[in-house]
Amino acid sequence: MIENRDALTSTAAREVALDCLEAGVEAGHPRTVIRDAVTLEDETLRVADTTYDLEAYDDLVVLGGGNAAAHVAAALEGILGDRIDDGVVVTDDPVDTERVEVREGDHPVPSERGVAGARHLLEAADAATDETLVVTAITGGGSALMPAPAGAVSLTALQSTTDALLASGADIGEINAVRKHLSALKGGRLARRVAPATVVSLLFSDVVGNDPSVIASGPVVPDESTFDDALAVLERYEIDAPETVVDRLERGVAGEIAETPGPGDTAFERVSTHVVADGMTVLEAARETAAERGYEPLVLSARIRGEAREAATTHVAIAEEVRATGNPVSPPAVLLSGGETTVTIRGDGTGGPNQEFATSAALDLAAGHADCGRDDDRNKITVAAIDTDGIDGVTDAAGALVDGTTVEDPESAREALAENDVSPFLEARHALIRTGQTGTNLNDLRILVVEQS
After folding, report:
1. Cα angle, residue 78 at apex, residues 33 and 205 outer, rounded to 5°
2. Do residue 189 and residue 322 come from a single domain?
3. Dihedral pair phi/psi, residue 50, rounded to 5°
């Protein structure tokens, strides 16, 4: 899975960190998750604790989108086979399928081919009837991959707004509140299009807290955000959005455009929602691997958020406490965390949240071991951080692996962080982790290996 693993495993601690990363990503892959969450017994489809009699429906259709949507569709085909009559998913990680059409889009900024794919998806939704069972495959990345700009909002306007939001430091809930109100599909609008079909929604959560309305901007779940909320986000982060975007949001606030469907809307009467995988899916597998390798594992949180570089400082501080005092766990230990950090972009470089996390951690580790003259002392804490989909930010790296030897010139690390240009810095130090697209998209995964003194 890790393409450059051999180049990264210079110590036993690094090997353990990579083992934990690989176990977590594999546990969150749709082929693993769907096998555990979805079963077929004769003509009875079971999803978690809910059952559906397939003989009660004329058609079974798979619809959805996101980074891992095609992998979900392929896993569903492996279980349902020719019981699937049709389907469309939009993704940036296509795989071969037999009955579900895979359309390609782009992430994290929407594109014309994503618009075309979303249009085709909506056409398939419109064809559903009250005798249709729709299984939706909704995964992280769906917000960008299924753009469907609404009203007078153009793709160009949506792209510039998305770019500005991603650079602002806004969290995913805030970003998606805006996206929902600029789309003909998000914020429960897909549920309206597919009604009165029965909908089984399979969600792969890449958001802290697993709010279904935030995952891929909630295409088939109720939305409690409003046009007013969306406009407030633009104002809060001083986003200079295109005129058509601001005009749509202002018209929505004035009541000239219908709100996204909220709780109690009839569109959701026949919709059931199942979060089949989330950040803890990944963390639990990584925790088990750490224990198997002889390390005491401790999950710090699956809900880490905020600025990546600041979160790194806190993580390193906990690891240092573990090494120095044995609190809150005795070494050898592996500390794990999930969630999704953000980066407020002030420079013009290349990187991503996990690479900024790793660079900041490496800088802190170097400072903490400045007086150590032996590399084995400086390797007592090893830090790995990746985006489980294999793409950190807009780079071709999943994240990075660092320790106390990574930063030899602290000033260059500080400059890379100041310019948001950490990717070249890490690449020059052979610290980047490369996996390619993994088919998994369940938040970030961070591993801190703490050896005994």
Report:
1. 25
2. no
3. -110, 140
- Identify the DSSP state of 215: G
Q: Kindly give the parts of the chain with pLDDT less than 70.
A: 369-377
State the Cα angle at 416 between 410 and 418, rounded to 5°. 100
C-alpha R_g of the chain = 22
Q: Of 227, 262, 277, which residue sits at a domain end?
A: 277
pLDDT number for residue 377: 61
Burial class (CB in 10 A: 0-12, 13-18, 19+), 207: buried
430 and 360 inside one domain:
yes
Same domain, 364 and 243: no
Domain boundary among 277, 300, 326: 277
Report pLDDT digits (tens) over 25-49: 999 999 999 999 999 999 999 998 8
pLDDT of residue 453: 79
* Cα three-residue angle 297-299-304, rounded to 5 degrees: 150
Q: Domain holding 182: CATH number? A: 3.40.50.10180
Residues 318 and 248 in one domain: no
Listed in sequence order, the residues at least 6 apart from 435 whose beta carbon sits closer than 8 Å to its beta carbon are: 1, 2, 3, 25, 386, 390, 398
- How would DSSP label each residue in 28-75? TSHHHHHHHHEEEETTEEEETTEEEEGGG-SEEEEEEESTTHHHHHHH
Q: What is the pLDDT of residue 378?
A: 72
Nearest CA to 274 among 122, 51, 439? 51
The rounded distance, in Å, linking the Cα atoms of 354 and 347 is 17
Q: Indicate if 54 and 156 belong to the same structural domain.
A: yes
Are both 347 and 272 inside the same structural domain?
no
Residue 357's domain comprises 5-26+280-450
Nearest CA among 355, 314, 358, 315 for reference residue 333: 315
**272 and 332: one domain?**
no
Predicted confidence at residue 369, as pLDDT, reads: 60
- Triad 361, 362, 365: Cα angle to 5°: 85
Question: Do 61 and 133 form a contact (C-beta atoms < 8 A)?
Answer: yes
Whether 263 and 321 map to the same domain: the answer is no
What CATH number should be reported for the domain holding residue 348?
3.40.1480.10
Position 373 scores a pLDDT of: 42
Reported as type and span, the H/E element at residue 192 is: helix 189-194
Bridge partners of 273, per DSSP, are 201
Report residue 251 as tokens.
């018209």
Instruction: Count the domains in the chain.
Output: 2
Residues composing the chain? 453
Q: What is the pTM of this model?
A: 0.91
